[in-house]
User: What shape does this take?
Amino acid sequence: MFAITAIIVTFAAPGFARFQKGWSLWGSARMVETSLQWGRMRAISTNSPVLFEISEDGRQFMWRDPSTGDIFAATVWFMTGDARIVSSPKTSLRFYPRGNAVPSGTYRVEGETGSYSIIVTPGGRIRFQKN
Assistant: This one.
């Protein structure tokens, strides 16, 4: 009985590890999407613009008040696993009180198991898709 269990575990472990990395990547991409939704709603509800910033290595992102430069409390996020934002618009995204976004563009989150895109339109619509 122990030998059969050991054989099953030996073959299942690599598949489980890949499955876990895939879920970690999906979760990180959804975290970026959710944060972008939050920023848009914050700009609309407070009637003031907000600024989305990404660290140089793409492993961290946050929201700032563009007039003071202050980071909003609890908006600094770290990507999980090996996921990171590998491409984004050249300048920091800003949502305005009417919900529009400048610059619009695509944020690509990539990891070992694939990539996802979060697309922000000029009108502020946010879409999530697997690449």
